[in-house]
């Protein structure tokens, strides 16, 4: 696939999911501690979220940091905007900022 195709796939994923986590592994089996931490926080909020396992999508893994201007994973996107990685997710959760943001952009389970 070309970079343009991959960029379009990423843009479509972000547009199609109001809460999207690009991560290493899956929510059931995270493949790094940072992804596990992000999943744990999102799970505590109790709202559904989509995910993309970048280990199974090397083109996305290579292209997304260029689009997002964010070099690391996981990356949390809410309502089409990059929120950040696990440190920012954790800080926002501790500060009480993340839960209302997620709740405003997702359906209750």
- Residues in helix, %: 40-55%
As a percent range, the share of strand residues is 15-25%
Main beta-sheet strand count, sense and barrel state: 4 strands, mixed
User: What is the 3D shape?
Assistant: globular
Number of strands: 4
What value does the average pLDDT take?
95
Write the CATH homologous superfamily.
Glutaredoxin
CATH class: Alpha Beta
Question: What is the domain tally?
Answer: 1
Q: Could you give the order of the helices and strands?
A: HEHEHEEHH
Helix/strand-derived class?
alpha+beta
Strand order of the largest sheet: 2-1-3-4
Distance, first to last CA: 36 Å
Q: Rg to the nearest angstrom?
A: 13 Å
Would you identify the CATH architecture? 3-Layer(aba) Sandwich
Number of separate helices: 5
CATH-defined fold name? Glutaredoxin
**Which stretches are poorly predicted, pLDDT < 50 over at least 5 residues?**
none
Description:
Residues 19-83 form the Glutaredoxin domain. InterPro entries: Glutaredoxin (IPR002109), GRX_PICOT-like (IPR033658), Monothiol_GRX (IPR014434), Monothiol_GRX-rel (IPR004480), Thioredoxin-like_sf (IPR036249). The radius of gyration is 13 Å and the shape is globular. The protein is an alpha+beta fold and 109 residues long. It has helices spanning 3-16, 33-45, 58-68, 86-94, 98-104, and strands spanning 19-23, 50-53, 75-78, 81-84. The mean pLDDT is 95. Strands 2-1-3-4 form a 4-stranded mixed β-sheet. A hairpin with a 2-residue loop joins β3 (75-78) and β4 (81-84). The longest helix is centred in the first third of the chain and has 14 residues, at 3-16. The protein is built from 5 helices and 4 strands. The chain has a single domain, classed as 3-Layer(aba) Sandwich (Glutaredoxin), CATH 3.40.30. α1 packs across α3 (58-68) and α2 runs parallel beside α4 (86-94).
């Amino acid at each position: 696939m070309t970079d343009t195709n991959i960029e379009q796939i990423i843009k479509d994923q972000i547009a199609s999911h109001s809460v999207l986590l690009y991560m290493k592994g899956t929510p059931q089996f995270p493949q790094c501690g940072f992804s596990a931490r992000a999943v744990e926080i999102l799970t505590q909020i109790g709202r559904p979220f989509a995910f993309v396992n970048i280990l199974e999508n090397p083109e996305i893994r290579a292209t997304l940091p260029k689009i997002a201007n964010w070099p690391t994973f996981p990356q949390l996107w809410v309502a089409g905007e990059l929120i950040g990685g696990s440190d920012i997710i954790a800080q926002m959760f501790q500060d009480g900022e993340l839960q209302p943001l997620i709740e405003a952009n997702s359906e209750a389970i």
